[in-house]
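Model: Ready when you are.
Researcher: Fold this.
Model:
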Amino acid sequence: ALALATLTACSGGNPAAGGGAPGGAAGGAGAPPPPAVGVLTVAPHTVALQTELPGRVEPQRVAQVRARVTGIVQQRLFTEGAEVRAGQPLFRIDAAPYQAALESAQAQLARAQANLAQATATAERYKPLAEAKAISQQEYANAAAAQKTAEADVAAGRAALLSARINVGYAQVTAPISGRIGRALVTEGALVSAAEATPLALIQQVGTVYVNFTQSSAEVLKLRKALAAGQLRRAPASPGTEAVTVRVVLEDGTELPRPGKLLFSDLTVDASTGQVTLRAEVPNPDGLVLPGQYVRVRLSQAELPAAVLVPQQAVTRSAQGDTVLVVGEGNKPGPRPVTLAGSQNGQWVVTSGLQPGDKVIVDGFQKMMVPGAPVTPVPWQPGSAKPAAAAPAAAASVAAPASAASR
């Protein structure tokens, strides 16, 4: 009986030992599939070459409010920082001396007019007497000259009266243009002078502003040569205009909601910096930018007829050149040298090295343990950290029943 039990135990263990071969075969069938990587299928299209340049904001119109007569400031008639309109009173200067001068000019004019009336009457009375030779010609000539002198005195009196009225009007300082006024530069009781043209305030129009920025003369020359050779074409103008669209980037990285337009490019290169000055006109109805503020300007001066935009993480940059990994035959990745023409919005602009339909690997590099080993390309979705995560999950779900069956 003991021998029979021993033989039975040995024969029961053999199938378990022999079952290792099927189990091993099952293990070979459950090997991990090729790693899934996110790929971008290349499709060339028109790409605008954006240039970002530093600039400064300048008001569209600016006017300094200055004193045009000498006197004591009696009252400020505006609110600092408010909007003012052209012709609005801003300051009142003591006008008493100028009012007195005005009244004196009026009196002088009245005297001159009285003298003119007397001289005219004398000349008219002497004229027939001179014709009748009742008086000498010299007497009539003197009377006519006195009349002319009186007429000149009247003209001078009128001019003096007009000047006095102007000075009285200048005693009330008005806004030369409409816009936003800053702080008052003088206070009540201050003595202002017409000789020194004392500044009183500053008015600026900021509803529409200018942005002055500079570009390297070498970049301008390179751009013009590329346009002449047909490598690039001019960027389309703003709708309804012939000017290039300009975007203004604020200090916090946000853009103004309304785009501007490029007005002109200077014809002279700054000898000290080698820069060319450009100016753009930008709407600013909300007052988000202020004169003197530092901004950055984005503009598209030209565009590539057929180029490719590739995410920056897909490009490897080294001293030997720029390369990307492209999925080839048998889903095997291989390096491909490319030529870049700058970047925009986190993407490289590729001008050569890629063909339509090429699959560029963008994500999943960490899963490629063996160089040149096959991969499973999965469409890459922008903003997805793990675009190929679904494939490993599916593989795991398939492998789970096999392991359960083996158990």
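Researcher: Now this one.
Model:
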Amino acid sequence: MNSVELPVCPYCKSEDYSELTPAGLQCSGFSGLQNYVQPEFWARSCSNCKLVFKSRILDESSLDDYYSSTKYAKWESHRFYPTERHVLRLANQLSEGKRLLDIGCSSGRLLHELIHKHSCFGIEPNIEAAKAAEGKGIHIVTSEELRLGRLSPFDAVFLMDVYEHLREPRELLASIWSNLKAGGRIFIATGNSNASSLRRDLANSWYLQNVEHLIMASPGHFAAAAEDIGFEIESSFLCSHYDANLRMRVEQICKQLAFNLSRNENGFCWRYMFRKLPLLNRAESWPRRPPCNLGKDHFVTSLLKPNI
């Protein structure tokens, strides 16, 4: 497999960016029987549109192979995530009889909740997932049909945990704009590069250490994108991607603190204390930052196409 460098921002093509420290370690992901390895990289923050993007990613062919060999059940869940529950609350405010499109609909688990009130369409490149969605009454269409304007306009479009995978995010947002009715909305759920739980070491966060995640947005990025394309920001809601109880949150916070102090030359007293605690006493030997994915590191934004 090969990797490629991203010399400009994937959204606005600007060369004006800053590199966040520290650099990201090599990361990898298994799909099928293959381990897909992405080399070390920088997390680059675009000065123009506020998008964070990796300086190096797997090339298009490797990513396509990765996705095609991955079982779609990997992205499924027996219950809705907090981001999905919020989007469903927004979608349930729509009057009946709307045309809805979910890009990256997987097995149609989200649209299945709305199909009794609306005409539901999905774009899903995974063949098995697309068949499962069709079995739930969802009409499967292609990204090519969307790009070429061959579909009737939609009232709402969903991008659920999709934006971070995009190689050309502006191209997709512009395509959605062209296929959206005046007064229509895009509901986007994605990671938040401004999240305090990730910002200290963004490139080594659980989010950017995922080989699938090429970019990372923020409310500021979508403010810039909305102005660029012509949308209005209707709402923005910060939340976690995952449900967690207090014990799980405290455990992650303690592990983060132990990891940080184990690498702080001035933290001898704290290191001594953590050495006396089970699990945390091994923090100095941890090769990577432990995952911290239970904070408000995601957000849902609603972009409105205004009536002209």
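Researcher: Key takeaway?
Model: Residues 160 and 189 are 5 Å apart (CA to CA).
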